[in-house]
Amino acid sequence: MTKCQVPAVLIHQIEEELDKEEDEMMIFLCRDLAPDLATAGLRELLLALNERDKLSLLGLSELLYRVKRFDLLRRILKTEKTTVEANLSRNPRLVPDYRVLMVEINENLEKEEVSSLVFLLRDFAPRMKMSKDKSFLRLVIELEKLNLVAPNQLDLIENCFRNIHRIDLIKKIEKYKQEGKILLHCLVLIIRVRCSLTKDKVTSQTVCMLQGIGLFKQVLYHKEPVHMSIQESGPASHKVSVYRMQSQPLGVCLIIDCIGNDADVLEETFRGLDYDVRCHKHLDMITMNETLLEVARLKMHRSCDSFICILVSRGNAQSIFCTDPISTGFPLEQIKKYFMADSCPELRGKPKLFFIQSYIVPEDEQEFTSLEIDGNGNKKIISNAKMPLKDTIPQVADVFWSQCKVDVSILEKSSIPVLLLCLIKSFYFCCCRKLSILDIHTELNRRVYEWNKTTDPNQQYSLLLQHTLRKTLFLSPS
Fold first, then answer.
1. Which of 53, 419, 452, 467 supports an S-S bond with 400, CB 3.0-4.6 Å?
2. Which keywords has UniProt assigned to this entry (predicted)?
């Protein structure tokens, strides 16, 4: 017989300290963990979860955190609120986000408002009892039994909140919905990339099946731990200076893919992150320059809070090659300059992110013809001369520059989009864990270098990050 993770004495001490309302909240939070004990009391429920190996000290501390009994965290579990928050960011969570949302809403409703909700719901649930002491959580449970409310079915409650003029609660629900859409979206993209390894097709029926068997819920509720080399942080963990990220869309995302492998999935990824995506494939040098100038001059930058540029192409350390017959190189430094404050004042003070995937062509295979561009965007060709290596470290603020290099031979020997898969996974965790962009890049490093351990040294990826960010950046509304 295995020993339970949580001593019974701790469960007893905690249960003795909680009042009736806190008991109700904790039982509601655990409702999905033991559906067969829906009518059990808190002590019986916690003991059953403990015996079934579904409760740990971390899980118990999470429950106390959710009901805001920080005093019991210190006195009984000998831990602090900040420690629990750090554990929640690093480990799978016991409680689904949907249950947490409902408890947060419950704490923000007055009894009169709950009575109004019950009255408004009579058209949909005429047999619902009009009890004076009915709590919002009990109301939710009754609606769940009638299949009127579920983790992905909150429109009815949202409409009721609109009728009682609780716009703040509607915003909470909308935020939850948006995060859920992003997670599902990224999950589908990850599945597509994985299936590309075996050339399987992902149909809508496959996605529905995955949701039906609970894979989506597993990803949404019990997120994979992220192994970070630095401490994770989120917008609510402590007071930090952060970039404003509230515009809709968050900004323009320019994707230029001169290879043709990655653009479609990248486009879906960043559109799911609420960016206005402009995707271009197989550009020659002249069209590349015209496209960059056109995007840099967009008036919508003024109303957006950020900008992202993704480039996928053959190239060398300081240039990318386009689709011209000869390997003319477009200077990476010039691409960056188009979006600096002097050239694009609408982006002054706003974060500008560049992700470069360079498939490096050996020098003996390059034709040393390069494109030089002056400050006005005029072009002239310099023939038979190598471009000197330029320092790509940003000289102005608010730039995030991430360049990944791999030998061009990987395009011939393998179609596995390793960087693409790592990038999608990393941004997926950005959404579900509220990580900053620097933390996300650390996670991207980890995933890429884990891949490098399993492959030929000549086909390993190398990542270089240079940035001049002045604030913490989260790629989600803040």
1. 467
2. Apoptosis, Repeat
